[in-house]
Amino acid sequence: MKLYTSLADIPQPFINACVTIGNFDGVHLGHQLLFSEVVSRAHRQNGTSVVVTFDPHPLKVLRPGSIRLISTTQQKIELIEKAGIDVLVVIPFDHIFAATTAEDFVEDALVRTIGVQELVVGYDYAFGRGRQGNIEFLKAKGQEKGFPVTVVEAHYEGDMLVSSTKIRELVAMGRMRDVRTLLGRYYQIRGEVQRGKQRGRKEIGFPTANLQILEEDLCPKRGVYVTQVIYDGKCYGSVSNIGYNPTFGENRLVAETHIFDFHDDIYGKAIRINLLRHLRGERKFSGPDELAGQIRLDIKVAQKVLDAAQKELLLSCEERLSR
Questions:
Q1: How far is 201 from 207, CA to CA, in rounded Å?
Q2: Euclidean distance between CA atoms 167 and 207, whole angstroms
Q3: Distance, CA of 206 to CA of 198 (rounded, Å)
Q4: What 3-state DSSP class applies to 66?
Q5: Strand, coil or helix: what is 247?
Q6: How are beta strands 209-212 and 254-259 bridged, if at all?
Q7: What is the C-alpha to C-alpha distance for residues 251 and 132, in angstroms, rounded to an integer?
Q8: What's the mean pLDDT when you consider all of the chain?
Q9: 77 contacts 39 by C-beta, under 8 angstroms
Q10: CB distance 323 to 78 below 8 Å
Q11: SS3 72
Q12: Is the peptide bond before 92 cis (omega within 30 degrees of 0)?
């Protein structure tokens, strides 16, 4: 996949470009259907499948603090590439770009720069200053400029609408199995392992890899989760506590993960953590001994969950390691 991080970097319009536009936070099953439609239509025309998105998310600029994102930009790039897209255009979004009218965006970006021949959009998509670029507007511009517009309808899994808004809601509730259903994969957090106070190793007997979670990030419901850690080409079963560690009176929001059968020093190293299931809420214990006893129970339950999901976890891990 060819990545462009500015419209100005595109040297010439793409051949028979079939394009979709959106924020695509989370790259959920609904987004994946859009991408599949774009890839299919581009293939039939011997053309180029193109995804256009924005960084940062427009709401981060227009209404700071109003949105917490499911995926980082890097995750989004990885997942879009996995969908088989030929070209990804990530447009820098700021207040100047936000003032662009829908008319100018179609003329300058889609037609002149990208060379759109077909446009595929989601049922609720709108863009441009004041969200002028709705479906009706796009269809009218398509007729004027000679590109057909295909609208992909809403997608449901059971009775749940697949949407980024719904997924954020489910993550906040700790409903990780439902999150997986809508994403088509496990919800993942990632980061560099931070050096903590090493209580897990010294006082409790269960060393942990700690990732700091920023308050503005999308934070899952606080508590203990069955997890899977991906590090250095291998996958490991684990349990994670997401919260403030009330037993020791901490005030930083941290994901503390005990990785099974693991002894490497990974301070400063990047890891990825898949969240499978919320086991229990965060609790304050009387001290290290009571906490250690509860962790032993959590590990037993987690191992049963991991054993039951062994085949699925293996496939999940292989997919991520193949990137």
A1: 4
A2: 31
A3: 10
A4: coil
A5: helix
A6: antiparallel
A7: 44
A8: 91
A9: no
A10: yes
A11: coil
A12: no
Residue 135: pLDDT band with limits 50, 70, 90: very high
190 backbone dihedrals φ, ψ, rounded to 5°:
-150, 160
Query: What CA–CA distances, in Å, run from 53 to 77, 87, 114, 119, 249?
Result: 10, 11, 13, 14, 42
pLDDT in tens, 251-277: 788 999 999 999 899 999 999 999 999
Calpha distance 88→86 (Å, rounded):
7
Q: Please write the tens of the pLDDT for every residue from 27-84.
A: 999 999 999 999 999 999 999 999 999 999 999 999 998 999 999 999 999 999 999 9
Reduced DSSP (H G I as helix, E B as strand, rest coil) percent helix, strand, coil of the chain, to 5: 40, 25, 35
Tokens of 204: 């409790």
* Cα–Cα dist 32/184, whole Å: 9
Q: Residue 17 in 3-state DSSP?
A: strand
> How sure is the predictor about 197, in pLDDT bands with cuts at 50, 70 and 90?
low
* Token pair 């008319």 in the structure block, residue: 103
Burial of 304 (0-12, 13-18, 19+ CB in 10 A): exposed
Contact 239, 299 (CB under 8 A): yes
**DSSP H helical segments within the chain, as ranges?**
29-44, 58-62, 73-82, 95-98, 102-104, 135-145, 164-173, 176-183, 199, 288-308, 310-321
pLDDT at 200 over 90: no
On the question of pLDDT at 172 being above 90, the answer is yes
For residue 292, pLDDT over 90 is answered with no
Q: Do 49 and 87 contact (CB within 8 A), yes or no? A: yes
Q: In a 10 Å sphere around its CB, with 0-12 CB exposed, 13-18 middle and 19+ buried, how is residue 6 labelled?
A: exposed
